[in-house]
C-alpha cells in the first residue's frame, strides 16, 4: 500500500456528533450514520450532497473519541438543532483508499500507518483525521460486506 500526500483546502462542515469509548463507537456509529442520513436534507448550502465526511477526534488521556458525520457547506448560515458546525483548516494529509468489506478497514489503517513510518512522515496526533465517503460506499446505504466498497482516508501530517 502506498499513499499520496496532498494539501486539502479548508472545509466547513455541518454534522451530527457522538462521543464515547472505542467499543461504544463501534456499537453506536451505524445509528449515528442513520440519524444523519435521515436529517441531511435539513442542512442548507451543501456543496455536494453525495459526499459525506466522518471526522474523528481522539482524547488519548481519557480514551474518548468524538466522531462527526456531516457534509461540506458553502457557509454557516443556519445550523440545524442538534448539529454542529466545524471548520477543517487547510493542511497537508496523507491520503489512502480503503477498498473492500468494512471488516477489513483496520488492516487498511495498519498498512497506512506502516507506510507513513517507512516513508518518514510524522502524523499530527492533535489534528482531526477524516474519512470521505461518496457513491462508492456510504454507511447506511450500502452493505458493509460488499467487495466494491471504497472510501478515502485522510491522516493529518506534521
TrEMBL record:
Protein name according to UniProt = GyrI-like domain-containing protein
Q: Where is the AraC effector-binding domain?
A: 1-158
Domain of life, source organism: Bacteria
Name the InterPro entries on file: AraC_E-bd (IPR010499), Cass2 (IPR029441), Reg_factor_effector_dom_sf (IPR011256), YobU-like_regulator (IPR053182)
Enumerate the Pfam families for this protein.
Cass2
Q: What residue stretch is flagged as signal peptide?
A: none
Amino acid at each position: 500500500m502506498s499513499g499520496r500526500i496532498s494539501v486539502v483546502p479548508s472545509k466547513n462542515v455541518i454534522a451530527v456528533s457522538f462521543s464515547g469509548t472505542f467499543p461504544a463507537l463501534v456499537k453506536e456509529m451505524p445509528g449515528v450514520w442513520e440519524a444523519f442520513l435521515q436529517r441531511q436534507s435539513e442542512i442548507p448550502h451543501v456543496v455536494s450532497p453525495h459526499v459525506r465526511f466522518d471526522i474523528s477526534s481522539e482524547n488519548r488521556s481519557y480514551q474518548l473519541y468524538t466522531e462527526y458525520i456531516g457534509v461540506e457547506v458553502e457557509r454557516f448560515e443556519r445550523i440545524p438543532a442538534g448539529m454542529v458546525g466545524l471548520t477543517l483548516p487547510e493542511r497537508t494529509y496523507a491520503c489512502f483508499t480503503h477498498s473492500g468489506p468494512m471488516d477489513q478497514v483496520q488492516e487498511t489503517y495498519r498498512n497506512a500507518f506502516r507506510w507513513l513510518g517507512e516513508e518518514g512522515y510524522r502524523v499530527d496526533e492533535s489534528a482531526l483525521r477524516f474519512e470521505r465517503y461518496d457513491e462508492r460506499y456510504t454507511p447506511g446505504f450500502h452493505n458493509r460486506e460488499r467487495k466494491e466498497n471504497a472510501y478515502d482516508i485522510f491522516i493529518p501530517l506534521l
